[in-house]
Amino acid sequence: MTAQPLLDVRDLTVEFSTRRGIVKAVQHVDISVAKGETLAIVGESGSGKSVTSYAVMRILDRAGRIAEGSVMFSGVDVKAADESAMRDLRGREISMIFQNPRAALNPIRKVGQQIEDVLKQHAQAAASDRAEKAIAALEQVKIARPRERYHAYPFELSGGMCQRVVIALALACNPQLLIADEPTTGLDVTTQKAVMDLVVELTRSRGMSTILITHDLGLAAAYCDRVVVMEKGRVVETAKAADIFGNPQHPYTRKLMRATPRLGVSLRELLPEDEASSSLQAQSVIAGLDPAIHPTSQESVEVMHPRVKPGGDEGSAEGHRSAGSLRPLLLVDKLVKEYPRQGASATLSKLFGRKPAVEPEVFRAVDGISFTVGHGESVGLVGESGCGKSTTSMMVMRLLDQTSGRISFDGEEIGNILPQAFARLPLRSRIQMVFQDPTDSLNPRFTAARAIADPILQLGDVKGRDALRARCEELATMVGLPHNLLDRFPHQLSGGQKARVGIARAIALHPKLVILDEPTAALDVSVQAVVLNLLQDLKQQLGMSYLFVSHDLNVVRLLCDRVIVMRSGRIVEQGSAERVLGDPQDAYTRELLTAIPHPPLPAH
Amino acid sequence: MSTVAPTLEPAVSTRTSGLVALIGHARYVLAENKVTGFAFGLLVVILFAAIFGPWIVPYDPLASDTASALKPPSAAHWFGTDQLGRDIFSRVVVATRLDTFIAVASVALVFFLGGLAGVAAGFFGGWTDRIVGRIADTIMAFPLFVLAMGIVAALGNTVQNIIIATAIVNFPLYARVARAEANVRRNAGFVQAARLSGNSEMRILLGHILPNIMPIMIVQMSLTMGYAILNAAGLSFIGLGVRPPTAEWGIMVAEGASFMVSGEWWIALFPGLALMIAVFCFNLLGDGLRDIVDPQRRT
C-alpha cells in the first residue's frame, strides 16, 4: 500500500430522512483505496454497500445526505466540493459501472455517439478525432468489429456486449477510480468471467484503482486485492482477499462464506452452524404432523415405489434412465419450439429475389430435445440465457404450446392439450412452478394468504373460509413463514419471505412435479441457503420431483440428482450431477465450469 | 368448534387493522400534502351541498319573486337574485346535485365501458385490441365537444343523454390508459402464476389484472370528473341538455351572460365560480387519491 491513498473515506455516516424518521444507511465506515488497488465491498442487500459508493460520487438522492465523516479523493474533499467541481470529477476522475447495462445506456442513441458524449463533456478529444477515439474505446473492451458496432443501438447488442459498452464509456476519459456496482449480476457465468477479466485487465494496465461492489464473496475474492465486508451499514471486516476465505474473523463473514455454494459442501453445510441442527428438528416435527393431513402426498410416495409396470410402450424414449425401466414421471420426446424470424429483411430479400435467404425462416428456440424426470428425482436444466431452458420449462408447464414433439406426464399425453384448456384441468394441479423473481410473481394487491389460497380456490377441494385459512397457515408453517405475515402485502415482505410465499403457493395442491425457475437467483446468499434447504426438505416430505432450471452450477450440484446441459436449444450433455459436473465430457460444460469464479479455497 | 375459533380471530382482527392502517395512511398523505388535504376539504363541501342542498338553502330555487328581481348580493340574498327574482345562492347550491350526478354517472359509465374494453384489449391483444383501438380512434377523430353536441342533438335533450354523450367522448382516454397498463402486465410473473393456479383467462383479467390497474383508473376518473362537469355545463350553456328553469350551473351562466353587459355581474359569476371550484377540486384530487389507493406507497 502506498502512503497516500487515492480514496480515503473516514467515519462516513449517511442518513436518509424517511417517513419513519431518520434512517442511517451507512454508519462510521472507513474505507481506503490505494492507487492501482482493487477493492471489493461485499454485503447482502441493505448492507449499505451501494450507498457508500453513491456517497463517494455524491449522487445520493434528495432524501439522503452525508451526516458525518469525510471523503477525500486524491486531495479533494468530496463532501465540501461544489457541484461543478463534482461534475468534473465524475466521469473524468471517478466513473461507475452499473448493474443493469441496458438501463445505463440511452436506448435511442447509437453506442458510439454515447461514448463521444462523454469525451465531449470532459473535453477529452477534438471534434475531428472524437469518432476515432470512440472506436478505439470500443476496441479496447474487445468488441469485435468496433467500426460496425459504433453504429449499433443498445437493443441490438447482447447483455454482455452492453456491459462492455458501459465499461468503454466509464473508461473513455481514463479515470483514476472505477466503481463497479454489481457489474455482472445480470449476466451469464461465461460472460461474467469475460467481463470481470476485462475489467481487471484494463484497470491493471492503466494503473487504475477499482472498487467492486458485489454480493458474491467468491467473485470478490477471485478478482480483488482486498475485501471489505459490510453488514447493516457497518464495516465488519477488512482483509486481504487471500486471507478472507482461509481465515475469516467476523461471525458475519463466516456466515456469508458458509452460505456460498461451492465445491465439496453439502446443502446442510450452507446453513449457519446453530441453525443447521435446529432446522432438522423443525423438519422432523413437521414430518410427524404431515401424513394425517396429506393423503395425496402419501399417495405420491407410494407411487414412488417400484410397483409401477414397466413402460414397454415407451420404446422410442431416449435419454438416461437412472430409475431403470420404470415409467418416468415426465417424459419429453423430440420437443421443438420454433418462432418465426422477425424483421423485414428476410421478406424483402424474398420479394426482390436478390440474396438467397441464408438464414432459415424460423428460429428454433428448442431443437428436438428428449429427457425424462423420474419419480422423486431432481433434474437440473442448465444453460446460459437464450439456450432454451426457460422455453422448455414453459412448454412442460403447458404455458406455451410446442411446435412438435411429445410431452407425457405420469403416463398421460399432455403435449397435445392446448395451454388455455390445460388451465382448467385437474392435471394442472399436478405440475406447478416456483418463479424466478418472487416480487414479480406475486400479485401486488393480494396478501400472502390470498396468494397461497389462489390455487386452492381454483382447483383445490378445501371449502369454507376457515378451512382455507387453516390450510394457508399449515402451508405457511411448512415453508417456515410466520403466520402473522400472512396478511401482509408482497411489498411488506422481504425477498426471502416472498420466496416462501411463492413456494407455499406452488405446493398448495400437492403437485408431483415442481419446476423451479431459478428460484434463488434474486436472493441473497444466506437466504438462498435457507430456501434451498427448505426446497430439499419439502421434496422429501411430499415426494415431489423437481425440474430445476438454473444457470448456477454450484446450486445445481447441491440440489440435483441429474443434470441436463443445454446450449442453443440442444442438449449437449446429460447424466448424474456428480458425473457431469465432476467429469464433464463436453467442451461447453467444461467452459461453464471454469467460468465460475474460483476463490482461494479454505483449508479444511 | 373450539379449534376453529382461534383461526377465525386473527383473520377478523387483521381485517380491522388493515382499515385502521388505510385511514392512518390517508391521514399521513393528507398531512404531508396540504394541497390534497385542501382538495378533500372542497370535496366534502361539494358532497354536502349535493346531498343536503335542497334542505339547507334559504329559498326555493325555482320560486320567482319579480318584486326583488336583479338585486345585487346582500344579507338577504348572499349571491343576489336573477331576472326572475330567484335566489342565486339557493340555485347554485341546489344545482350541485344535478351537476355532480351527471359527472359521476358518466364517469362510472365510461369507466365500466372504456376501462373493461381497454383492459381486454391490452390483455388479449390481437383482434380485441384492433377493434377497441379503432373505436377509440374513430371517436378521437372528431372535436370532442362537437361530438358530444351531435350525440345530444341526435338522441334528445335529456339528462340521460348528456351522461351517455359525456361517457362516449371520454371513452378513448379510459380505453387507452387501461390498455397500456394491462399490456405491461399481461406476461408478468403473477399472471403466469395465476394461470398455473387454474384461473381462466377471464378471471385473470378481472381478478388479477384489473385490481392492479385501479389506482391509475381512479386517478383518471378524478381527472375526467372535472371535464365531465365542464362538458355537461357546456352543453347546457349552448341550450342542449338540461332545460330551464332547472337549476344547473351551465344554464345559469348562460342566463347571466346577457346581463353582464348591463352590470348585473353576479348572475353569471357565482355559478361560474362554483363550476370552477368543482373542476379544480376534482383535478387536485387525482394525485392525492393515487397516493392513498396505491399499496406500494403504503409502508
Task: Please sum up the structure shown.
The complex is a heterodimer of chains A (604) and B (299). Chain A is of the alpha/beta class and 604 residues long. In chain A, strand 7, helix 8 and strand 8 (209-214) form a beta-alpha-beta unit.
Notes on the structure:
The complex is a heterodimer of chains A (604) and B (299). Chain A is α/β, with parallel strands linked by helices and 604 residues long. The two termini of chain A are 30 Å apart. Chain B has 299 residues and is mostly helical. Chain B contains 10 helices and no strands. Classes of the chains: A alpha/beta (604), B mainly alpha (299). At the A-B interface, strand 16, helix 17, helix 18 and helix 19 of A face helix 1, helix 7 and helix 8 of B.
Oligomer: heterodimer
How can the largest sheet of chain A be summarized?
6 strands, mixed
| Arithmetic mean of pLDDT of chain B | 83
- Supply Rg of chain A: 26 Å
Number of helices of chain B: 10
Taking the alpha carbons of the first and last residues of chain B, their distance comes to: 36 Å
Largest interface: A-B, 43 and 30 residues
Q: Can you give the mean pLDDT of chain A? A: 80
Helix content of chain B: over 70%
Low-confidence stretches of chain B: 1-15
End-to-end Cα distance of chain A: 30 Å
Strand order of the largest sheet of chain A: 6-7-8-3-9-10
What general form of chain A does the structure show? globular
Largest sheet of chain B: none
